[in-house]
Give the backbone structure.
Amino acid sequence: MTSPIAAYDLGRVPYREALEVQRRAVTARASDACGDAIYFVEHDPVLTVGRAGRAESLRASDGELRARGVDIVPVERGGDVTYHGPGQVVAYPILALSGLPSGRDLHRYLRDLEEVLIRAIAAYGLRATRRPPYTGVWVGDRKVAAIGVAVRRWITFHGFALNVDPDLGHFDWIHPCGIRHLGVGSLRTLLGEAPPRREVLARLRESFAGVWDRPVVEAPWNSPVQETLLA
Amino acid sequence: MPVTIVVPQLGESVVEGTVGKWLKKEGEPIAKDEPIVEIITDKINIELPAPAAGTLGKITVPEGTVAQVGQQLGVILQAGESLSAGAQAAPAGGPQPGARPPAPGQPPAPAREPAPARAGTAVAEAPSGDDQRVSPAVRKLLRENSLDLSSIRGSGMGGRVTREDVLNHIEAGRIAASAGAGAPAPQAAPGSAPGRAPAAAPPKPLKPIPAPAFAPPGSREEVVQPLTNVRKKIAENMLRSRHSAAHCSTWDEVDMTALVEMRARLKERIKTTYGVNLTYMPFIMKAVVRALREFPILNASMTETEVHYKKFYNIGVAVHRDQGLIVPVVHDADRKTLLQLAQEIEDLGHRARADKLTLNDIQGGTFTITNAGMFGATASTPIINYPEVGVLGVHLIQERPVVRDHRIVIRNMMTLVLSFDHRLVDGTPAVQFLHRVKELLEDAESWLLDSI
């Protein structure tokens, strides 16, 4: 399996719009209208509630969130409540599971996503770890990346959010993924300064390629693919 | 036979999942592979595809309940089946409700490719000889042709008989029948007696070679039509060009990524402001005119004794019409803005297809551009629009892997082909001209501003 995975950087995209792009990409991928792809995006502040979402995971009141213009979007991924906002690198791999080393082993797919993050973070000299039974990636006891995945027709969607330089105060709106006793961190707080987004994307592409043993190639987000997915 | 929906193997470490949302209600029709129910495990929500088509007969595990791998979640009924039959048939075929954890030390391989197919789709899909395993379209086709399903070999999944199989079977029968009447029977399977109807033949070991669909053997029909004047003229011009010019082609790959981006940014605004569709053609024409100024030999023509260098730039654009190809000309393209070019090219195209071009519209060209990419071609070698000496073929813009800075990246690439009259134009200026067009297209932003 050496067919390349196209990596697109969509830049700042409203959450609901990116969700629509993902859903269309899944449909297109399932019918082989396009190949495997990873979409990198950044969102305006938004709270997304996975299928395992619980009301008590939300700390901020509806009114408070509305006043700040924060959208709350129910989504089909697994997991509880998640915050997305500026300063995060969000990755949505839209991949046929049959082409991955994990095959249809979904837990292995989650562990592979963690491995991608761990290797990319290691490039900055930080030792990131897993914290079983939770899913995600931690440096010390600070959670730096959240993961939530969905699968439709054996095609993956949703993915992970890596905290590069988000406003950590926004995480006070929720108990991240329902976990109350662990804090949240970012590459900026851990390194003292935020690495440039382009560089983080390059490191993530490299570690995706390493973990899955597939070429991951940077592709321009202004192509016929875009016209199909935004049509 | 009713098909049970079970929780498939989802990984070595996954032994159970929570039933999320049922995406279908009882009684609702279901297409095969359509997402039917969500199973939620730690951080993952997986939508199970329907193992078969039919209707959702019964939901046995409601939303929010934990289900074990292998447990039955519901039953899909196929045409003509009732729930009671389904409810009884299901446990017999499927695993017992309850836990079926993966055996410790189970090798990972079976959990990958084959396992989901087994667990996800097959549980109750025992082989059955009746026609419930074929689609309604196939059943109709069988009925209409009085055929027996068992006489046809299926090429679909699990030996399922598809519509194509039935059509091939009918076609094979027709050919064998005509073989009996004395015509050659190249499609007859080895060993089958001539003239014997395959419907009665025993199942063959291999799928018969499909017969051509276009005409039965024996037909030698030709349709004779007089040539239209347009076609006569096209034929005459093409042949004159081929006989007169010494055709030679050279090509190059252009990275259109920046231009694709620029056009994407501009096209909506230009459409709403000026009502003009901004295609790539005006950009290409601008680049061509600029390059022609630098390589005047490509904007020339020749007689037996002279070269005629044109100091004007009339660029033809080949337009496809049902009546036949025509090449309307944008006159003085060097003195028009990008938007004027866009508008004029669009207008000429409309009038060409509506047969409303004037004589002036198709005369006086000095160089031609032809876009075979519009119909999907990635490369072609165009014929020169004689007595011009060069024609540029532009093609499909598509994402291709290319090497940049020692890395493979995906870019929007297009193949450019220049056909030139080698009597007048040497290879060097031809290649240099084409390279110049490439450079200009790849860096359009830098020169478009001073030429708009």
